[in-house]
Amino acid sequence: MKHIVSLIIALLLIISEFSFAQQQHCFTSEKMQEQLAADPSLAARRADIEAFTQRWIADNANEEEQREVLTIPVVVHVIYSSSAMNISDDQIISQIDILNKDYRGQNADISGVPNIWSNRVADCEIQFSLATCDPNGYWTNGITRTETSVTNWNGSDDVKVTAFGGHDPWPAADYLNIWVCNIGSGLLGYAYQPGINPNLDGVVIGYRYFGLDSQSNTYDLGRTATHEIGHYLNLDHLWGPFGDNSNCTADDGVTDTPKQMEPNYGCNNTYPHESCGNGSNSDMFNNYMDYGNDQCLFFFTNGQKSRMRAAINGPRASLLNSGALSQCPVGIEERLPEASINVYPNPSSGATFIQCDRWNNLNSQLRVIDLSGRVVFSQNDLILGHAATEIDLSELSTGTYVLEIVTDNGIGTKKINIIN
Ligand SMILES: [Zn+2]
After folding, report:
1. Catalytic annotation on 228?
2. Is the pLDDT of residue 338 over 70?
3. Is 353:343 a contact under the CB 8 Å cutoff?
4. CA pseudo-torsion sign 209, 213, 217, 221
5. Taking the CA of residue 297 as centre, how many other CA atoms within 13 Å lie in the half-sphere pointing to its CB?
6. Active site residue: 30, 63, 228, 333, which one?
């Protein structure tokens, strides 16, 4: 009997944990409300942005401007305390590919949109690209990696602070910052909307939910990032900016998304699912700004597109002129730390020697990056000094690469040609 009671208690705990996790799907509304309470000037900024948004939409409805594809530079900060959290470059690139499909209406599953909504489906003409220049003008692949002793962030913005074991944002005016970490608290992710303090700006996503075939059964198609970036570009949930819309007074400020009472979860929703008197328009449960499983979220509407493009032409406009995607010359511009680094022979056919003129650099890190930005070789704990250290690049195919060396005395990049 005692065992049965324990079993029932355990089951109840699992069930309540599961419900809790569902309720915490996305924390954007709560985070924004928290900041609105903490920072009185935020409400005024948000009101200005909303006024601008409405004006911009009225001025640009169906205009030529909306046909220009806008590209947002992205930096992904991977914050990890285990190898599972240290997701690969390929996993990150798969997420960027998903964003570029979802925001261009090119996702294959878009055919699943029920007929009633098909004429509202948008090609948002927004795309994303990993940054090629970091804030100091160094070449970058748009990914930073930080090993931390923090195993669970419990939904805290401390992940955005280097001093707390996270990683400081790159300037929010120039980059969309995405932190991938063990977010905790049953959360998939959260974002801040335009107008927020730049130190907090950006998107946080749980490492299990980032990219294609990620470490989750139900949130494995990268739609958490699609959803959170929708918030970053000034979208609300379909039920409005608050957690609860049981009296149906709130709205998302988008004309072609029906008013909706609450989130729809899972994948078993069938049309029509009515609430708030939306009748045959129904809850738009396949919209990215609802809470369904990844495989049941397919589209943004034209109205949501207009709001997001208003954001990129208004409060987020600096992203378009940031230089983060400019030709930070790969393999052409070489930068060296104060202690000069020599790499020879160059060209090399495999055995390559690295030597440092003036300093001893213990625990240096080395990465070799190809011209498309992929890391093709890496080595930690390299000891650089007067005596040359040998690395083996014989696995690389013929071509030009960038050697990026991080030492105690700074970061160096050297161009190297491989002939194999
Ligand atoms: Zn959300």
Report:
1. yes
2. no
3. yes
4. positive
5. 30
6. 228
